[in-house]
Every structure is written in structure tokens, then in C-alpha cells.
Queue: 2 jobs
Job 1
Amino acid sequence: MDYLINLSILFSIYGILAVSLNLLVGYTGLVSLAHAAFYGIGAYAAALLMTKAQMGFFPAMLCGMGLSACAALVIGMVLSKFRGDYYVIASAGCTIIVYNILMSWREVTNGAIGIFGVPRPAIGDFVFTSNFAFLGLAFAFLVLIVLAAQLIASSSFGRVLKAIREDEDVARVFGYRPLHYKMLIFVISAMMASVAGSLFAVYLMFIDPSTFKLVENVFLLAIIILGGLADNRGALIGTLILIGLPELLRFTGFPTEIAAQMQKVVYGLLLIVLMFLRPQGILGKFRI
Amino acid sequence: MDLFFQVFVNSLVIGSLYGAIAMSFALAYRTTRFFNLAHGSMAAIGGYIFFWVRDNLGADFILSLAAGILAAGLAGFLIDRFIYAPQRQRKASSTVLLVVSLGIVTVIEAVLSMMFGPQFRPLVTAGQISSFQIGPAFITHVQVWIIAVNLLIFGGLIALLYKTKFGRMIRAIADDADVARTLGIRTDFYIGIVFFIAAALAGLVGILNGLDTGLQPTMGFYLLLKGIVASIIGGVGSIPGALLGGVLLAVVENTGVFTIGSEWRDAIAFVLLLVFLALRPQGILGKGGG
Amino acid sequence: MRHFVLALAVVSFAFPAFAADKPIVKIGLTVPLTGDNAQIGDAMKGGATLAKEDLKTETKYDYQLVFEDDGMEAKRTAATTGKLVNVDKVDAIVSISSGTGGVVSPIAETSKVIHFGLASAQSVADGDYNFIHWTPPSEEARTLVATLEKKGIKTIAMLGLNQQGFMAIRDEILKQLEGKDIKVTSNQVINPGEKDFRTAIAKAKADNPDIYIVTFFSPEIEILTKQMREAGIKDNITAIEAFGLSTEPSLFNGLWYVDAAVAESDFTEKYTKRFSRAPGFGSPNAYDVFNLLVAAYEAAGTDPNVKPPHEDVIKKLHEIKDFDGVLGNLTVDEKGVVLSPAAVIVMKDGKPVSEDAPEAVEPAGAQ
């Protein structure tokens, strides 16, 4: 039972990441490989502020969101100059740079050693020590983020994003300024990823840079492409499948060496086959 | 001064590896206009087949080398024939092709890991040391080969593109594949050959890289990322640009390693990329914009 | 009568489940069985398996092992630890590396499960339920610095991998060099995955230090050494732990380095016979941890039908003194760190051999 709770917590955290990435890739058509960078910034901001400045979880998470927003403004400005494939490569570069900073700016981030003893969140006297309670918190955040994403998608703001995705020049003709919209959604998405990062840090109670590598983006991209671009339910279904898959393989009794590689083969084949059969994913409405 | 010379020689060697992978990448890119992230995996395939033929079949060096290069080329050709070409026919966007290639990288890395193990594997036992001095700088025989092969690839590609009928054909395809097709050029056939050549060259780079340090299933992707950076710096699709970009990237990286510290190498490389993308997206020798 | 005895013997032979009537103590190992560090997980698996097979039959409880693959990744460790604690209901967890240990230790503390980390980072032992069985960096650094002084070395260059354990070791060396007549001419950190060390080597070499101290895992240690030799640096290389981790140890023939004491030769022989390969990084530690746990359980158990609570076992673990382990005489201190000595090792024909330790290895007061 507790095992399922652990998996559900991971599902909630990755659900947040998938839904927020979908706002960029699915709704706006920006294939970003910078998401892991904001995930990492959120995780480190929470871990550092809670251990070094004895801040509570919620203010630390807000600071992390603020920091991610600032970083997103800078990165977004740089990225806004590019379209299509250049955008992908430049955003991948951002993840590599942030990972490098987490790894090598040891005075602040403690480098590869990581940060130990991150406390669990508390409201008043109640501490989310048990995983069951923590699942409640993580799931609440997932629901909030999904609602926010749903609101964005169905609002006029969301419609402009989709228009930009279909044809940026047409959107411009209609008097919208694509740059402003793209920057705004980039910042929003980054702040959401930052929330996931903060949750991840207090869930593990330990954080090191290894989670925030470039490959994490490939995993996230596989989730939303599988589940469906420009559909929030799709992003959640994708998360469920790809978080559950390795755990299922764990119980099948495959030799572990092979199981780990089989998992990667499955991810890879999913990407290839989906691009042939259903480029918009299971529930998606948009093809990249 | 001695130190400066050593750092320069180191940069030249690494720059040659970056440049060679960037040139082979550029050859395919200028013809098909998409970021083929699986290109680096061809280097890994070349390296592993070389290793396997040499150590398991006991073949001599030249035969193993040929087998590695051929296997990589064939892999590149088949991937194009069965995956990229059908997507091209469906008029898939370059981003779709990029995502497909990401899937291919993941599969190839996993399959290589299952076949040869995920660990790093040196091609030369560490006991075999074959360095000599040029002035104050140390260099190994393999490194001299890396530099020489890099120049050969450059000369060969330039000759191929500008001195042969084949070169004219693929330049025509690069300009406009649809027009080329209506003129009766078998575009898919020529693109297939381009993929074969590009992948075979990547395989050669993989073997050289393996002989210099060693092999790992994930080696290709990392090498390709640096190759793409080199290619963008030099001007995407430009062969001389790729060579120039590779050497420039390596010089900047090594200067950074020397002055700031080794642990900042990747950040330095990608900051350089972002600076170029922001200020000069067409690269040093490129004409078109990003 | 004879038939009856025979029948009984057959029955007990055919139904070893008789033994399972004893309460079961489950020990879970979360180790990398795949990925770059798979050989470490394999070596630990071997050590623990051998310890279980070596166990005397007349124990009060039945001891079982469970293995989970975490690939030495934090995210996967959280999942494997969750599975060990909640699905397998293990009594104790063994982890390897400071990163993995850092994930396991808070979980162990909240779920009240005993945790042994094989880790250099001392914070892995924080809390009541957490223990470390790895020669502490302070011990290794002390031995290294004493040996450097004894050999009259004045200048050193350090090249280290940016990885939890090795950074802890590096920090400890720098701390212990304070006030000593040894100068660090160059101190460089290199990120995992790097294969081209040549410019870093050139930079270190420019100051012409007496000796180079390198702290890396395999394969970096072999690549680095090869590149150092190619740059003309031959025999003035030393290390903490690194040479012992190499898959090509003969590369370091004739060089001295500091590591945990060499495991007893009995153990090495037994292990090699059982698995037809030499024990690796972590094998003797896993073997010792299994036996320490068994010793504590057997001592804490008053009723053979009921397992003692974890709290009693922990109390007994802390009381362990001069335990005859394969890594020497082991004592558990109040923080939960198993004190095992560091030693100067010399690589001879690809095999680590203990060199007579310099005097300063004796406990040097408050550390």
C-alpha cells in the first residue's frame, strides 16, 4: 500500500511537470528541452532556503517560483530569437548550463554532494512526515496546476497561444504580439516546473544534481507526446503509463540489467512509432 | 609558453574530433534540413563494430576499421530508408524528424548496452602508451591520426561536393528537393547515399575517439551535441564552417578549462553556442539566418 | 528405530522449510545492478550472498537477502527504498555511495528501519537508525598526510572527480593539510563523464609538483592515468581508494595509495572460489555488514519465536567492539560509524598489498 503511495507521489510530481511542459510544447508549439532546468531550480531553491535559511516550505517554494520566473525571463528572451529546431537545441543548452552550475558552483549548491536533511513541509504544527499526508499535499498541487493549465487552455490567452502555434505571422496580423505571449507562457510553465522541483526536494529530503540532466527532458517529452499534445488529460495519462512502466517491469522478473535497457527501448520505440501512427499522441489535438 | 603550446595541441586534437563529427553532420543537414540527433549514435556503432570484429573475430586493424565504417554507414542508410524517407514522403516537419531521431538514439544506446554492456570500455589497454614530443608538447600517435583524418575528411567532402556530378546532384537537392525531383533526380536515392557517407564518416570518428579514450554506448550523443555546437558556430550546413567551428569550440573550451576550471567545460561550450545564436545565428561562414 | 531416524532425516532434508519456522530477518540491498556502476552492485551482492552462505546454521533467526537495482540514481533509490520498506518489509537496508545513502537515510529514520550506508559522507549516519561501514575520509586523509610527510613530499597537485564521496575526501585532505609544510600547487575538480583530462593535466604539471593525488572511479582513473603517462608523468601518482577501484589494477603496479585495509586473504580466496572472480569495491563491506547485523540480532533476541524490535538491535549494534570482520577489527562509535582502519597499500602485480602503516595511523586524539 505504502509502495503505491510512493508511486502516486512520483505521479503527482511528474504530472505537474508534464502538464506544464504541455503548455509550451502542445499549446504553444515550443519544443523546449529547458524544463529540467526549472525543475532543478525549484528543487534547489527549496532545499537551500529550508536548510540554510530555516525557511518554511511554502515561502521557500514561492521564492523558488520567483527565481525560476527570473531565470525563465532571461532564458526565454534568448530562446525567443529562435524557431523550430534551433529552439530545441538552444533550450537543451540551457539545461546543460544549469546542470553544470548545480554541479560545479559548490560554494552554493554543495555540488555533487547534494543537500542532505531537507525537512518535510509543515502547516502550523502539522508536519507532512508520513508519505500518505505528503501525497495529499502533492496531489493538491497537481490538481491546482491542472486546473490552472485548463483555465489557460480554455481562455482567450490559450486561444492566442494556439493561434501562434499554427501561424505566428497570422497572429501578428491580428494585432497580437507573439513575443509577449510566448514569454508569458514560458514563465508560467517554468514556475509550475519549479513547484514540482520543490515538492521533489522535500519528498526525497535530499537533492543532488543527477536528476536534472538533459535526459530528464527526453523522458518528459516522451510522456506528453505519448499522452497527447495540447491535452491535459493526455499529459496525465502519459505520466501514468511512463511512471508505471518501470515499476511493472520490476515485478515481471526480467533480469534487472535487461529490464532497465528494455525500458529505454520502449521509450524510444514509442517516440518513433507514435510519430508514424499518431503524432498527436493518445488524446492529443496537435501534431508537432 | 610551453604550457600554451601544449594547450593548443590539446585543443587541435579535440577540435579535430568535434570538427569531423560536425562536418559529417553538416553534410546530412545541408541536404535534408533537420537535426538528426541519431547521427552521433553512428559513431558509437562504428566504434563498437570495430571493437567487436577486432577482438572477437581476430581480424587485423584495417579489416576491423573497414567493418566499423561500413557498419555505421549501412546503419545510417537503413535508418534513412526505413524511417526518415517515409516521414519525408509524408511531408513531416523537421521537428517530427528531430523527435523521431531522439527515439532512435534512445533505442540504439539501449541495444548497444544490452549487447556490449553499458560500461565504458577502453579500446587500447591503458598500459600501451605511445606518446612523443613535438617541441615541448606531448602528443600520441592516435592523436596525430585524428588531426590527419580530420583534414582528409575536409578535403574529401569539399572535392565530393564541388568537383563531382554526385556533388552537383545533392547540392541541387539541398537547394530545392521538389524542383530536383521534377527535374528527374532520384532524390531519395541520393539522400540515402548522403546518409551512408555521413554515417560512415561518423563511424570513423567513433573509432578514432575510441582509440583515443574508449567506447561507451552514450558516447555518440555527447559527441554530436558538441558537433552541433561546432556546426552552428561555424554556420550550419557549411563544411568549412564545421571544421572552423570545431577548432574554435575546442580552443575556447580548453582556454576555459585552463583559466576557469575543468568542471565548467560544458557550460562554456553552451554559453558560446547561445552567444553565437543570439548575435550571429548564421555562424561564422553561414549566409542564411537561424 | 533406524527407519524412523532415516525418515526424519529425509523429511528434514526434503523440507528445509522447517528452518523457516524461525522468524525471518530480511535485509534489503539497494545497489546499482545496471548502468555505469553495475560492477559495484554485483560486488556487493556477492559479498552479502557469501556472508549468508557462510552463516553458521544454529542462528536464532532466519536471515534473508533482497536485492533491488537503483542504478545509483537518487530518483530510483527513493522508489527501491520504498519497495524494500513497504512491499518486502525489510528490517535493514544496505546502500552504496553517499548520494544513494543520502536518499535512504531519512526514509530509514522515518520508517524506523536499520540502514547501513557504504558512504564517505558522514551525514549519511545522521539519526538513530543510520550506520556507516566505510573507512571515514578523516581516517584516510590522516593516513595520506602522514605518509606524505614521512616521504618528505613538499608540493602536491590534486585532481578529483566531482562526486559525493570523492569531494568529501578532498575536503578532508585540504583540512588536514592546514598548518602542515605541504603546499597544494593545483587543485582541480572534474565532472563525471569527462574523458579528456589533458588540459587539466597540463595545468597541474606546469607547477611541477612532487606528487599528484588522483581520486576517481573506474574508468576515469584508467583514462586519467593513461593521459598522465602520455604527458610524461610516470610514477609520482598516488590516490585515495581510486587504484583499488580500477578494472585494470596492474596499471598502478609499484604505486602506493591509501585505502581501507585489504580484506583478509581468506575472504578473497573464498569469494574468488565461489564466484570465480575477485571480490570488488564493497564486497568485504557488504560481507561485514551482514555479519554485524546477524551479531546484533542474535545478541538482542531473547525469544527465538519473536524478532527483537529494531531499537534493541540498534542498541546492540552500538555495543559492538573489536568485531572480527574481514576488514579488520571493527568498532561501532556513538554516531553509528563503523570505525575501520585505513592503510597504505602498494599495488603489486595487479594486487593490493598492505604496506606497514606509518606511526601516525594510531588514533591521533580528537578528530
Job 2
Amino acid sequence: MEKSVISIRQLVKKFPAGKGEFTALKGIDLEFNTGEFAGLIGPSGSGKTTLLNIIGSLDVPSTGEAVVLGSSIGELSAREAARLRKHSLGFIFQSYNLLAVHTVFENVEFPLLLLDYSASERKKMVQEALEWVGLTDKTDSRPPKLSGGECQRVAIARAMVKKPSLVLADEPTANLDADNSHHILKTMETLNRELNTTFLFATHDEKVIGYLRRKIFLKDGRVDKEEWVKQTP
Amino acid sequence: MKTAIKLAYRNLTGAGLRTWLNVIVLSFSFVVILFMKGVMSGWDLQAKTDLTQWEIAGGKYWHQQYDPYDPFTLSDSHAPIPPELADEIAAGDMVPLLMTQGSIYPQGRLQSVLIKGIPAEQSLLKLPTHQLDTVTEAFPAIIGAMMARNLKLEIGQYVTIRWRDVNGTFDAHDILITDIFSSNVPSAEAGQIYLPLETLQEMLSMPGETTILTFRDEERERTSVEGFSLKTKETLTASIDEMLKTKEVGQGILYFILLLLAMLAIFDTQVLSIFKRQKEIGTYIALGYTRGQVVGLFTVEGAMHSVLAALVGALYGTPLLWWMAKNGWTMPVDTSEFGVPIAQTLYPVFSPGLIVSTTLLVVLITTIVSYWPSRKIAKMNPTEALRGKIQ
């Protein structure tokens, strides 16, 4: 049975701009269920990253409501928001945001350290995550020694290692070539199917759009249109 | 906290050269501060030990008229040795010392001196008074190296001495320098000549009299002695304590400068880190850290510099400071000219208390200096930090 993961009602986000305000999101209403592989699509300035940040509890709505995994983002304290991110959310960034001085193993291990897993559990879970992305031979390498595709695969492993309910990916293929992009997207698609993890992308990359099963087009801070792709059995 | 320590350690070791440069600078400060403090402790100990061994022992009785800062009181500062102290003197636990002013004529020049009469057989003070037990027509005398150097006097040399007896009559005689001692105690050496007590008593026509009585046992409860006032060891070392305190102020400024240099490196690293590592800070927050925890992580990282510095400092500092404590630190110039009780070679003393307190102080200050700039993280917007857009 499908369960609601994200519920957004009349969401507005305003930022101070000069002496006035800039409204980035103008009354968004959206609902996402478990296991979706969806994307927020739109040009720069359409509000997709802002929406993703609010869903990721890195920002708060100005008005309206965003309920993520049962928690209303606007009402969470900083500690509660951190707890939500730590336990239930995974992030994949355009520029990978790996910890440069840590090895691949240590980067993937990081979320588990925060969750107080034992050393043996961490080792097992990191190995498993690196197997998903095909990087078991790079455990001791540091990010500066890896290619862009490899870095993004490490970022996926880091996002997935704790098996979160929701993964938020902001332009995950923007710095990758076509081959690497497809590899990354196939990996995420497989994880989505096998682990039933909800994936939500913010993108304007055609390659990513081609993989999405639900496409939400944003324009000037509003939902312009929505498309559902029928799954082939 | 455990996670913060683990992450901080990974961040520091992963940062490589940047970390080690800071650690080496900080470890250098550690070792130099410890060395300077050790020298001060050594000097303190040495100065007090020398002063005790050469001059004050366990304390003194001064004749009531005696004032070391007024030479005119010397002519009246003498009285018969109190009979109640005779046993202590006979046991060798108390030494009478008669003093008067006089002049000597080395190479035809006039030089004022303080003439001290001390029993040749005494062993309470470190003075080599056994050298006074010499049968010679001239009076046997010992002097300090400082005075010998100033007046170009040598062992075996004869010098004419002039003094006034109890009636104020001038008299003169030759003395024979039988020994020259080096004590590191200017007040035991400068402008002073030691003669046998009986000889001086005879010269001054003051048989059985004394100016000062120095005793061995400082713990013993002492009753008042008529005509004399009791000076405890604490009273007699008060001036040297004061001087060492004054020195500590100067040393404190030096520690402060050294610490400032080391802390500047830490502060600079922290400020740079916060700007350079914005994306990393954003990532920590995205992965579930609160801003407070990130501040904690950066503070632990800074503090860990000092812990690593202590370890690195221990690595090269332990053999270096041990060697210094064993072989001492020889002054580059003649310390007898300093006018303070300082040995030509100082032996630093590094007590466990000194090492622990210095280490804790440096770690504490480093932690504070690390925390100070890290507070800026608490005001960061994580979404901007993630993109590295904060200016």
C-alpha cells in the first residue's frame, strides 16, 4: 500500500531581496508517496532547489505547510530537523560535497557514525553500499583521486548507506558526462526498486528527466504541469 | 563527543601538512615555555639552596643594633655570645659571626671591605673556613671569587688590611689569602673577607663577642635571646622571593608572546577553515549535524592541535629538556656581574606539576581560541553553506 512521504500544502517561500522580498515559491501543492522516482523540473530560478531544501529541512516555509515523513518542517526545532535528516533523509548534491580529506570508506561511513552503529555494523553496511555503486575497490582512495562519476557514486553510497526513506538529489548529473550520468541514474533506479526508497530530483537535465516516472514542471515558483510515465511491466 | 573526536582526528590527519605545520609551531611553543619555566624553577631552587647553604642556614639571630643596610650600625652591633646558646654552638649547630668595617690595599689601592670573623672549624655554612686554620704570621683569610676577580687577588697573595678596634683606634696588618671560593651568592662574596673568629675578636678587642648567630635547625622553637632578634629563614629569603616574583612577571610576558604566536596560528587556521570549508559545514548539517555540533567539531579540531602538539613536543622535547636538566644551561656572560644570585650554569627543574599545568594551560587556551571563530558557524545558513556562497 502506498504511503505519503511528502505532503505540501500552499507552500510559499520568500527571501529578502534589497529593501523588498523575492518570492521563490508561490503556493505549491504536492504529494509524494513511498517508492516514487520523481523530479522537480525547471530552469534556473524556477524554485526547484528551494523546494528541495525545504523538503530536506535545510530551510523553512514562509507560509503554508510541508510535512515530510510525518514531521511538519516549519514547526521543527533545529535539533528535530537535524534528527530527521540524520535518520530518514539522504542527500545527493551537484558537486558531490564529499569530505575531501576522508577516504571513500570514511565518507560513506559518516552518516552511520552519527547514528552510533558499532564498528562491525558500519563496516558491513559501508561494504554493502559500495557494492551497490560498484566501488569496492576504491575504499581507501580519497575524493581528489576519483573521477567525477566515481565521486557521485560515493555520494550515492553515502546517501543510501543508512537506507533512508527519502533521497533528495539536486542536479546529480550536472557535472557528469553522458556515460557516467546514465550509470548513476541506473544505479539510483535500481536502488529505488530494490529498497523501495523514494527519490526526488531537482533537475533540468534531459538525461535525468528520461528516467523519471513522475515529472513536476516548475515555472516561476509554481507547478506548471505534471506528467506520469506508465511503468512497463 | 566520541564522534566529534573521531571526525576531528580524521580531519586533522587528512589535512596533512597544514595540520603538521600548526602542530610543530605549537609544539615549539610548548617546549620553549616549559624550558623557560623549568629554568625559572631551577633558578629559584638553586638561588634559595645556595643562599641557605652559604649564608642563612636555618635562620639567624641578629644583634639588635645590626642593620645590613646601614654600615654605621656595625660599630655598635656586637655583644657577648649568650651563654644559653653555648651548647648549640659547641654541638656545631650554631655559628657565631663577628663583623666590622675595614679597608684593604691591593696593589696600593684603597678598597672598603666587610670583615667577618667565623670559626674555622664550623661546617654549618658551606664556606671553606677550614682554610682559615693555617698557622701564618699574616692573618689567614678567605674571599669570594667575585671579589678576587675584581681586585685581581689570588691564593697565596698578601694584602694589607686596616680596621678600627672597639675604642676606635686604627690598626693594620697583613692578611694571607688562603682560599678563594665560588658560591653564586653575591651577599656572601661581594666586598667581604673572612678571618678566623678568634683573630677578629682579638683585632677588635671584643673577646667572646658576636654580631650574628646562624643556626641549623629551622624547625626548632626558639625563645628570645636578650640583645638579639630572631630572623627566620622566611624573613631572610623574602628579598630573593620578591626578586624571583619580579622575574616571573618578565617571564610571563615572554610566555604570553610565545602563546600569542602559537594561538595566532590556530586562530588563523580556524578562521580560514570556516571560510574554506563552508561546503563541508553545509554537508555536515545536511547529513544530520546541528550547527552547535559543527561548532563543537571545529573546536575539538582546534583543541586537538594542542594535544598533537603536546605529543610531538614530548617526542623531541623530552630528550632535549632531560639533557638540559642534566647538563644545565651555561650563561653566555659572567653571571657574577649580574648582582643577583645566579649560577654560571643553571639547571632547569621540570617537575610533573610544571609539565601538567603548562600542558593544561596551553590546551585550555587553544580550545578557547578554537571556539572563538567557530561560533560564526552557528550563524551560517546551511543552504548557502552547501553551495559555498557565504562571503
